[in-house]
Here is the input.
Amino acid sequence: MMGALISAMAPLPAPRQRPRRRRGLLLAAVSCLGLAGCNGRFELPYVLYLAIGTNNDQAIDAELMEETQGRLGVLELGYRQIHPESQFQFGLYPEAIISNALKRRNRAGLGPDLIFVNGDTALRMLASGVVNPFPATATQLNQFDPDDLDRIRNSRGQLAGLPTVLHTQVACFNRNRLPNPPTTVTELLAASASGHPVGLTVEPYGLFWTLGSLGALAGIEQAVAGQQPSAANTQRIEAWLAWLQNASTQQRVTFFSDQQSALSEFMAGRLDWIPCNSISLPRLRKKLGPNLGVSPLPSGADGSPPSPAKRIRVLALGSSSSAAGRARAINFANFSVNPLMQRSVTIGAQTVLPANRFVKVPVQSSTVLAALNQANQQSDRLSLIVKQIHYDDPRIAKSQALITELVFGEVSPRSSAQALIKMLRTKP
Amino acid sequence: MRALLLEVFGWLGYLERPTVLVQLLVVAGLVLAARAVRRRRLFPRLPRQAVTPIALSLLLACALSLSAAGLPYAFAGQLGVIWLGWYGLNLLRGGLLRWLPEERVHQLESRLLRPTYLVIAALLLISTVDSLRDLAVAPLGELFGVAISAGKLFQALVVIYLVLVGCGPPAAGLAWVLQGAVGMSEGSRKAMELMLRYAVVGLGLVAVAVQLGLNTTALIAVAGGLSVGLGFGIKEVFSNFVSGLWLLFEGSVRPGEVLMLDGDPCEVRKLGLRATLLWRDRDNAELLVPNQTFFTEAATTYTASDRLRRSQVNVGAAYHHDPAEVIALLEATACQVPRVLHEPAPKALLVSYGDFAINYVLRFWIANPLDNGGISSEVNQAIWHAFRAHNIEIPFPQQVEYSMVGPPEQHQSNRFQR
Here is the structure.
């Protein structure tokens, strides 16, 4: 096709070469048919095109490709036992640009059949028509936590995708240098004071776990709901911000502009403790090996549990599939949430938790899964905030700017608390 | 590599989608129709130049119709834009021909514009069916222990190609600036240009190797292996390459120089990696001489320190003419030939007494060594005319017979008579 296209574009006539060119085209066509199989029937491959969104703490590189291939391989292998003719092709896109990239592909009719992204990204894509609502029966939906489903429904009740796995935030530490991870925020600062470098980020979603530990959760929930927090809650928000500012003054506590920088420093051995997303665990394991420790995030000094962020990864339906492609996509999505596959994925990777609530996580057999499970339970505390403010909400970027000023000592906790409350109350 | 091929093969699956097929058929139909109309003259009144714009307009109309019907259209649009760009390159060629010589335009087009355009078009199409980012990190294998990905390889090939193709004009520009600043000769400028190109290509290759992450130990190991190979297999090639570089530095064989080869003056046209290209004026032949020929064998050059050549013609005048008169006439005659230099002045000499004539030689200087044949001819003609004007005879071969008078002691030699 392209050969014909290019030769048609060529301005110079070459009548004497035409028989030769025709022979060439014929040869190419015969070769293609030969490649298609010796039986002479040209069959198109049954390909399931999959686009996968990557978080901002994941760089798209060969390592991530390998990781993704490995994780997808578990599902692929199982699915191909039932549908042996199926092939999978996946592409990685940063979540920040996936919507626009797929919009462009959809306009050409070449969009993916399935998109594996965070729930909030899927909702955004549903709103802009990049994905189609996921058709699921009540029986199918019964498998999932209603709260999780609420997070991925639009105002018309349409489901942006099928929840597949959950990522949670846990603490990652270097066992070699820090044998016992801090269990409270006080212990965390004490560990840094005793010579253990600690890394935090100024990204709000990276810091929201401290809201629960430091008692500021209720105040922030009120603010994002558009209410003025009570005086007591305002004081707790100030105390939370004061703790952040105090932490930044510690010699061995570093605030990074993004999670990826903190991860790089941790992998390079320059940090002993960081909060990390469970999606990063394979890479950390590869780098640190048995020295990688995973634990729940620290509680408050008074025992208040942290409020880590949880991400729901969903499989959303692309809008430019053929009828057969759509059927394959729905089949695969349903296959990936069946209890057997959910259990395989959970136990195999020890990176994610099952979205299917009937799949029990074997917490006794793995401390990592136990930490993830605990973080998942704790993350319910943050659900009100997560529903109100998505990752791409402009208030998140503004909050990050404010927290950056705070940790650099440019603003006081009191003034920044007022500014933060005002900012969160103003819905975009 | 297998993964990459499977990925590419997997793109065929998109043909299952009717919306993709429709777009492809529209574009392919228009392309083939335009080709048939242009080649078979299906519409004789339609100018050939108008066929592609009309086909592109029809494609635009089809894409707009698909869009209006709520169907995907951008793939057809993209192919149309690529077609338009290709057509634009043809128009650009016409524009460039106004400013640049045809040979340069052809080089620019075939080496830079069209390959660049095709690469960009391919990337554009690939980005529509796949993610370029993860294709770029697809592993292809290992080279000296360094993992090579598709992106790295592509980047390396592009850089090497651009360095090889694109370093010419900047090197020529820099050499031209240096010529102006330092006042070097034309030959030196060309040598400088060539050396700059070699230097840029060399640095470019090293930079690509470093960018790929090849470690220096591996490169040294390769160099060690190559040195053995050089000793046996490609000794001649390497010898010619090194000879070429040496000759450039030495400055004895540079583009523009005039060398004597088998008795004929030849101008050096190009000093290549393996051989030197010479041009022989006598029969307009281009000679490819291995560089090491000039490196190992003696060569005569007329342009080492200056471009002057001292030439000479031989002539005989009859014995009865006063040599001083003949010499003066020869020198004056040479001065009248336009391409003979007045300084250094022409010089005539009496070289020998021949059987039937006194032999003279007229030596004169010319500015361009390659013009020797033509100027010598002009000088010879001028001498003929001058001798005729001054009644100086150029004698035919002649012999004088006389009877021997015996006994020998009574014999007398012929007396010279004016």
